Amino acid sequence: MASIRYIKKYSIFLFPVGMVYFFLIQPVLAKKEFSIEDTFKTHCVECHGAKGKVKGEVNLLSFTQGKDIKSDPELLQTVLEVIDFGEMPPEENQPIDKTERKMIVSELKKLLEEAVSGANEEWVNAPIRRMTRFQYANAVKDLLDLKVEVFPLPEKMMRDRSGYFKPASGKMPSKMTVSSRALGKSGLIEPRMDGVAPFPQDLRAEHGYDTQGDHLSLSPLLMEDFFRLSRSIVKSPSFNQKNVGSWTKYFGEPKPEVNQIAELKTRLRSLLTLAFRRPVQDQTFRKYFSYAKQQIDQGLGMGDVMKEVLSAILASPRFLYLYDQDDKESTHPDSSQNLDLASRLSFFLWGSLPDEELLQAAKKGVLVEEEQLSKQVGRMLTDNKLKRFCDSFPTQWLQLDRIISAVPDEKKYRDFYYAAPLYRTTMDMMMEPLLLFETVLIEDRSVLELIDSNYTFRSPRLRKWYGEEPKGKLGGPVSIPFARQLVEDRRHGGMITNGAVMTMTSGPLETKPITRGAWIAGVIFNSPPPPPPAEVPPLPEEKKLDESLTLRERFADHRERADCAGCHEKLDPLGFALENFDPVGRWRKKYHNGREVDASGILFRTHEFSNVIEFKDAILKEKNRFVRGLAGHLLAFGLGRELNPSDSLALDEIVERVEAEDYSMKSLIHAVVQSKPFRGPSSKLALHKTK
């Protein structure tokens, strides 16, 4: 199914040469209006529908026989994107000048708006899905005010060892100490509950994040695992008054004079409301109360009874599932929408349950109001629980999990490895972009600094790796000291040229420009390429073995293939722009054969560059495309689903808001949360209609 989705989305690359010119330009010039049906009939259906011939699995014949192009918003969006990004028409065809392209893009956006408006306007929020393992651990910790972790979380690739993360201060310190569990097994681990084993780690979806609903299922087998997990939590020796901050509130034995039944009802209603993220319905409450009262009647103490109830809560679908609900018993007309929004917002920024203040705003029915929502977002952005967002989103957005499997050749890059059992410099590399992201967020700096910044964070080992003179010891794998420093050489500012990205997009012996280009396209512009055709032959053996050729020359054959040229035209300039960085992220001017590295290219067929600094400048000239891409990543992460054509219009509005606020990071988050897809509402009926 994934391959079909990609083919449909990007099959415009397979259109006949020159078609797009007539497809889009001719109507604008000849008629001063956009007539897509006539163009299909004249120039497209011969290859896409006529006589059963369907190139790229795209059939356009029906659109010449009365079917409205607006009935296929996905195709319409694809056409819009490839024209807007300058990917069409092919290079060998007459280019579209800027004025014409703007007219075409404007008209296509109008058509797209019409396509998703009216009866078809279903702003789909997150599908029904379960919590991720990361969210589950956070939710249990917050529900019980635990002083220890529930179980180990290798998802947290960078751990704060010096207490530097204080978002309320609005300032990142100049020095901090961090460590990585993912790459260093001897790294320190936070205190955690004894005897609690986690369920399997959730992996990133093919099209996005580990929060994506289409792969967060809850099979009967996994349901049993959750039940065993919940039992192990309440039975853990660590589940005691010392480690459970809410012990007195929920598990402590009441005084003799206290009415046991009344106390039980109070404790149950409070716990169920927090766990289920909304006032508990009477029918649900009666079930839990009946079970608890039976236990008390049998002589079980209040603390043990509440543990049994907690075990049932933590394995309940009402706790595990994230979805929009319809509270029929609510006395407030907007209660459901507000409560759904509270949960969506909390899991987005905190990776956990809403707190009391957020729930209260939702229950009052005021959270959907722009001013109140903005107030809550501002508060949440200064809470220490924001670290969970930083532990989850940027590592997945930047695809830093790939660094774990990066293994440069031990002989060629021997200094990359150090100490037994061969720790890798990637442990330090990985921290650099994460600390930069946290700084931009906490200090509310421009998101453009993620592309090009005049500061960065370096460890002594990383300073040496980049050719600087480190002070003191290089440090070991357990605790790594980092310091903020100015970047005088623009080759190294921002994220796209740091050692982690360069290393994880390379092979053991040489760079992979196409992989690097695909990373830039997918991560920076949120426009990932389709998978390569299955029948693409390998590079000719003689070229593989020819040491006199540059990497660009070796890939020339693929660019000449008709079925490869479209993607290579898009990816090659992005990847070869970074070719001065070797497979482990160090600067080079020449290949090992003495040939000069050629990093020149053109971005979106508009911005020429000759080196990586000019490449960064070219990206910054298209800053709104980057902001739009980042907004799309944030929206997909927060909603737990792949974006659709309706979301495209919301992204345009987000970019306008962020541009007006000088591209600040917090303004971007506020704009994402205030967007129509994020705010909702969406009913289960609406979800079904869009499938």
Keywords:
30 helices, 10 strands, 691 residues, four-stranded antiparallel β-sheet, disordered N terminus
Describe the structure concisely for a colleague.
By secondary structure, the protein is mainly α.
Can you walk through the features of this model?
Residues 1-32, 119-123 and 682-691 have low confidence and may be disordered. Helix 4 runs antiparallel to helix 5 (98-115), helix 7 (220-235) runs antiparallel to helix 11 (302-314) and helix 26 packs across helix 28. The protein folds into 5 domains: 2-120, no CATH class; 129-151 and 192-322, no CATH class; 154-188 and 381-511, no CATH class; 512-577 and 589-621, no CATH class; 642-690, no CATH class. The protein starts with a helix and ends with a helix. It is globular. It has helices at 2-10, 19-30, 36-44, 73-84, 98-115, 133-144, 220-235, 247-250, 260-276, 282-297, 302-314, 317-320, 335-349, 356-363, 370-380, 387-397, 426-442, 460-465, 499-504, 513-524, 541-545, 551-554, 556-560, 562-576, 612-621, 623-639, 645-660, 665-674, 676-679, 684-690, and strands spanning 129-130, 159-160, 175-179, 321-322, 417-418, 423-424, 455-458, 480-486, 601-603, 607-609. Helices cover 46% and strands 5% of the residues. Strands 2-3-8-7 form a 4-stranded antiparallel sheet. With 691 residues, the protein is mainly α. The protein has 30 helices and 10 strands.
Class computed from helices, strands and strand pairing: mainly alpha
What is the rounded distance between the termini? 14 Å
- Write down the overall mean pLDDT: 84
Number of structural units classed as domains: 5
Tell me about the largest β-sheet. Answer: 4 strands, antiparallel
Provide a count of the helices: 30
Major β-sheet strand ordering: 2-3-8-7
Low-pLDDT segments, ≥5 res? 1-32, 119-123, 682-691
State which percent range the strand residues make up: under 5%
Helical percent range?
40-55%
Anisotropy-based shape: globular
